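Appendix B. One record, verbatim.
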Amino acid sequence: MWLGSCLLARRGADVIGLREHLELGHGAPGALARLEDELFLVFHLMIAGRFRWKPPRSAIPGKVGLFALDFEHGTLILTEAGSRRQASLYVVRGEDALARHDPGGLEVMEADLPAFAEALQRDNHTLKRALTDPHLFSGIGNAYSDEILHAARMSPFKQTGNLTDVEVRRLYESVRLTLSQWTSRLQRETGDAFPEKVTAFREGMAVHGRYRQPCPDCGAPVQRVVYAANEANYCANCQTGGRLLADRSLSRLLKDDWPRTLEELERKRGG
C-alpha cells in the first residue's frame, strides 16, 4: 500500500524528523515499511498490534497508542490493546539487516507440495504448532490454522511425523484453499479503503472463536483446548472422530471425571 511522503514520526511527546517516501506492505517479519535509501521499518504486531489510519496530525491514543507516522493526507497510528506490550518496531538499513528479521517460514501460496511436506515434517510437532510456527510457515497464525485443520478434517494435536502422503496433500490443499478464500473475501470487504476491522474473529469462520456454537458442517458444538495465551478450536465430530482433546488445566483438575467423548460431555452437562 503506497502511503506517500512521510513527514514526521512521533512516539508520545517525542517528534522525530523524517521526510521519506514510504510504502507499507507485508513482509516475512510482519508489517514492513520500505523507505528511501535502503531504510526499513520492521513492525512486529504480535497478537494485539494494529494500524489505524486517522486524519492528519491525530493524537496518539493515551492507553493503546504506541507510535505515529504523519503524512500529508493522514496519520498512521500503531496501537496495541491489553496490558502486555509485545508489539515492536525496528529501524534497519540494507537488505542484509532486514533479512535478520526474517524467521524463514515457507510462503505456502508460492510453494509446491514437496516444499510444503519438507517444512511440515522437518521436525515432529503437533499440526497446530507446526502451522503457527513462523520458522516453518509464514503468515498463517492461530485463527487460520483452526480453519485450515477443520477444512482438512484433522486433529490439531495430530503429530506431523505420523502423517501419510495422502494426509500431507490434503493439508496442503486445505492451507492454500482456506488462505486464498479468506484473502479474496477480506479484499472484497475492504476494497480500496484502509483495513479498519482487523480481528482474528470473523463472521463466517467454521470453528475459530466459536466455542460451543454449532459446527457449520455437522452441527456438533465446537470445542476448544486452552494452552498458554492461545487456544485451539475444533469440531470433535469432523476432526477427531468424536473424541474430546484434553485441556491440560481442566483435565488435571477433573482427572477421571474428564469426558472423553461428545456423548459423555453432553450427559455431564445435562445431568
